Every structure is written in structure tokens, then in C-alpha cells.
């Protein structure tokens, strides 16, 4: 059972720089398909010195056998892959994106889900690192490592941090806790088309809408006071939450940004891994538009 989170997940460029030699640093950048950008190409061009690339769509870091995008891999596959990236149980992990949090927030959540409590997010990403005048590595990326030459990570799953579709249906039927949807207002309301064809339009009954972009300003997470205000405006009273807090989005990526924000406010939440890509593909599921 997850306890109330303590300590901030966010770290500054100065904090990361002072711990480069004793931490594993990972570039977990990811872009929406419409952006038509390759995050690995960006990683190749420049990165924090020593950083390796965490591909949320790559083997070992997602279930490549699933028809749904970037679904969680088996714990043993995750452990083997991050061990190749140099992750161990006794060394902190810092994840970042080229800018902001998309991709990196999901990677952070995946580490928390697998029991890696000393995992952190670089607030503002690589852009903020550069804004602070810190050096970037533009040489060819380091060669891929094997598990033997990398680290050894043993997962300890915290299943309270993830939801599946049956969990969501039970929560909807039981009217317990809070469901928050990180998609845009148009998609939530059903007035804008879903980017993936064939999905239902609208949202889960009783869900609140808080687009993840509202929580970020200039690539950095807003202050705790501003985060609490954003949730309040969305209809979620942080101080009055009882029961489970479940987060959803299009495919389980931007919901993790909400997970980070709630962590900063001392609230434990869970990400619905399949999110609307799964829920909206099941025509019999209850939907409100």
C-alpha cells in the first residue's frame, strides 16, 4: 500500500550537476505524433554529460506485444533494460526531457511504480540546464551497455500506483475517489476528434478535466500554490480528497505529469496505463460527452 509521498520529485540543474558522478541520468524525451520529431535524434545531438536514452516505446520499457501504445512491460523486462542503462537500487536516478516533462514524467512514474523511490525529475529539462549555462555533450552517444557492464536493478512493484480498465470501471460504478483526465478540453468534452481513429468521444463519468499543460509554465512545474489552485479550478479540492485518485489521458503519458503535480502536493495517485486508447476503444464502456 502506497504511503503519502514525502519530499519533492523535482530537482534543479545545480542539484543534478553536483551529483552527476553518483547518479544515473536518463533522457526520456517523447513527442506527440503530430509534432513529427524524433526524440532520439535530439538526444544524439545534445544531452547532459553521461546521460543515456530512456525510450518509453522501446523494448524492455514497454510491452511491444500490445496493440496499445507504450503499455507497461513485465517487471523483469523493465529491470533488465534499466540495468543496461546503469540503474541500480542504491544510486539515484534523474530523468529529464529536452523541454518540460512529457515522457520524463512517465519515466519517473515507471521508476516509482517499480519501487525506485530515489528517482527525480529535472525541473525544466535540458532547456533549463542550458539556460543555467551548464555544459552539454554533443559527441556521439555512449555505446549501449550490457547488463553485465551496467547496473543491477531489482524491482519492488507498488501496484497501488497503476490502474487497469477494470479498476476504472469499478471506481466509476462505486463513485469513490477522484478521476482526473489530462487531455485537452475539446477531447474531454467530445467536441474535438481523438487523434487515434475509432475511439469513443467524451470522458469517463464523474471525471474532472485538467490538461497537463495547465500545470507547467515555461517548461517548469508551477509552484505548489499555483498547482493547488489549478486543481481547485478544475473542481478538485486537494484538501478534501478521499478514496483513490486515478489519472487518465490519451495513452498514459501526460497523466504522469498530473501524477508529479499531485506528488508535489502530497497526494498519492495512480496512472491508468491504457488510458483513453484502451477505454475509448471499448464501445460498451460508459462515456459522458
Question: What does it look like?
Answer:
There is one protein chain. This protein is an alpha/beta fold and 289 residues long. It has two domains: 10-157, Rhodanese-like domain (Oxidized Rhodanese, domain 1, 3-Layer(aba) Sandwich); 160-279, 3-Layer(aba) Sandwich (Oxidized Rhodanese, domain 1), CATH 3.40.250.10. Helix content is 28%, strand content 12%. The chain has ten helices and twelve strands. It has a five-stranded parallel beta sheet. It has a five-stranded parallel beta sheet with strand order 6-12-11-7-8. The protein is globular. The mean pLDDT is 94.
**Number of extended strands:** 12
Query: What would the average pLDDT be, to the nearest integer?
Result: 94
The fold-level CATH name of the largest domain is: Oxidized Rhodanese, domain 1
Radius of gyration over C-alpha positions, nearest whole angstrom: 18 Å
In CATH, the architecture of the largest domain is 3-Layer(aba) Sandwich
Individual helix count: 10
How far apart the termini lie comes to 34 Å
Considering the protein shown, what is the CATH homologous superfamily of the largest domain? Rhodanese-like domain
Shape: globular
- Spans of at least 5 consecutive residues whose pLDDT stays below 50 are none
Number of domains: 2
Give the H and E element order.
EHEHEHEHEHEHEHEEEHEHEH
What characterizes the major β-sheet? 5 strands, parallel
Q: Roughly what fraction of the amino acids lie in strands?
A: 5-15%
Name the helicity range: 25-40%
Task: State the CATH class of the largest domain.
Answer: Alpha Beta
Secondary structure class reads alpha/beta
Largest beta sheet: what is the strand line-up?
1-5-4-2-3
Amino acid at each position: 500500500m502506497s504511503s503519502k509521498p514525502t519530499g519533492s520529485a523535482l530537482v534543479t540543474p545545480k542539484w543534478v550537476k553536483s551529483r552527476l558522478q553518483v547518479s544515473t541520468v536518463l533522457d526520456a524525451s517523447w513527442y506527440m505524433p503530430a509534432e513529427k520529431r524524433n526524440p532520439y535524434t535530439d538526444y544524439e545531438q545534445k544531452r547532459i554529460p553521461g546521460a543515456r536514452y530512456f525510450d518509453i516505446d522501446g523494448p524492455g520499457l514497454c510491452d511491444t506485444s500490445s496493440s496499445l501504445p507504450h503499455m507497461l512491460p513485465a517487471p523483469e523486462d523493465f529491470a533488465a533494460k534499466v540495468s543496461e542503462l546503469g540503474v541500480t537500487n542504491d544510486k539515484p536516478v534523474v530523468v529529464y526531457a529536452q523541454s518540460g516533462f512529457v515522457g520524463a514524467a512517465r519515466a519517473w512514474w515507471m521508476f516509482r511504480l517499480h519501487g525506485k523511490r530515489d528517482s527525480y525529475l529535472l525541473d525544466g529539462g535540458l532547456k533549463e540546464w542550458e539556460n543555467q549555462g551548464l555544459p552539454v555533450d554533443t559527441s556521439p552517444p555512449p555505446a549501449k551497455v550490457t547488463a553485465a557492464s551496467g547496473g543491477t536493478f531489482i524491482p519492488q512493484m507498488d501496484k497501488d500506483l497503476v490502474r487497469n480498465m477494470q479498476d476504472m470501471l469499478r471506481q466509476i460504478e462505486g463513485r469513490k475517489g477522484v478521476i482526473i483526465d489530462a487531455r485537452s478540453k475539446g477531447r474531454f468534452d467530445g467536441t474535438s476528434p481523438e487523434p487515434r481513429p475509432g475511439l469513443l468521444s467524451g470522458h469517463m463519468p464523474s471525471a474532472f478535466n485538467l490538461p497537463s499543460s495547465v500545470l507547467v509554465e515555461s517548461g517548469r512545474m508551477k509552484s505548489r500554490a499555483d498547482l493547488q489552485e489549478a486543481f481547485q479550478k478544475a473542481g478538485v479540492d486537494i484538501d478534501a480528497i478521499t478514496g483513490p485518485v486515478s489519472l487518465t489521458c490519451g495513452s498514459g503519458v501526460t497523466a504522469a505529469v498530473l501524477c508529479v503535480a499531485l506528488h508535489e502536493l502530497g497526494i498519492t495517485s495512480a496512472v491508468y496505463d491504457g488510458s483513453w486508447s484502451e477505454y475509448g476503444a471499448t464501445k460498451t464502456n460508459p462515456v459522458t460527452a
